[in-house]
Write a structure and sequence with these properties.
Elements lengths: L2 H9 L21 H28 L2 H22 L5 H16 L6 H18 L5 H18 L9 E7 L10 H12 L2 E11 L4 E9 L3
Antiparallel strand pairs: 1-3, 2-3
Helix pairs in contact: 2-3, 2-5, 2-6, 3-4, 3-5, 5-6
Length: 219
């Protein structure tokens, strides 16, 4: 390649074009309502996913309740965010969702742990949507809620016991007099470790007894 060709390239001033968009978190104005809303929505969404799918669904595999609670979380966050920006009582808004939750679930019997997680999903939405609290404070409270749910329902910290209702075809004389003997007999008959039992009904006419048994698998 001759000197003339090099002179042509040198004459052309090639300027490198940067395709990288430099974005700094410090440039975000968190006082802007849109940025604050986006941050609150992100905190709410991450917390809801961790609570309902990272904890509840992973342990109990109940897709229906996990999905229902997640939808209630999104709906509650959206509506309460609007209510927080107008002259409307937050307590009244939360009461509306509580009534709606009870109305939608009253036809089906759910366990106490399901109610706790369902209420937790709504509580996270309320914490994140109420304006007037700093994002740092919201993040601390949400972290506390998630840590509390993880610790209290962790199988390695508190051993869980299942429960079931039984109808016995006879009333043993020692059912109330010697509860320890009755507990051992129930363990032998059921093949599980009976932790405790509660007598619900004793019918001497038909010689039937209804009890509630709390148990866990052996080993």
């Amino acid at each position: 390649m001759g000197h003339g060709t090099w002179d042509i390239f040198e004459a052309i001033n090639f300027q490198p074009i940067s395709t990288t968009w430099e974005f700094s978190m410090s440039s975000i104005n968190w006082a802007d309502p849109l940025w604050e809303l986006a941050a609150r929505f992100a905190i709410n969404t991450v917390a809801m996913v961790l609570l309902m799918f990272g904890m509840y669904y992973r342990r109990y595999r109940d897709k229906e309740l996990a999905t229902t609670a997640s939808m209630f979380n999104i709906f509650a966050f959206s509506v309460l965010t609007i209510l927080s920006s107008v002259e409307f009582s937050i307590a009244a808004g939360f009461g509306l969702f509580a009534i709606l939750a009870l109305f939608s679930l009253r036809s089906e019997q759910i366990s106490k742990i399901e109610i706790s997680y369902f209420f937790g999903a709504i509580a996270v939405a309320v914490i994140c949507s109420v304006l007037g609290t700093g994002l740092g404070f919201v993040l601390i409270i949400v972290t506390f809620v998630l840590f509390g749910a993880w610790a209290l329902d962790h199988p390695g910290i508190l051993q869980s016991a299942a429960s079931t209702k039984l109808t016995l075809d006879r009333i043993d004389a020692y059912m109330l007099a010697d509860t320890e003997k009755m507990r051992q007999e129930l363990s032998a008959r059921l093949g599980v470790e009976v932790m405790n039992f509660q007598v619900i009904e004793m019918n001497y006419v038909n010689d039937l007894a209804r009890i509630n048994v709390f148990y866990r698998a052996k080993g």
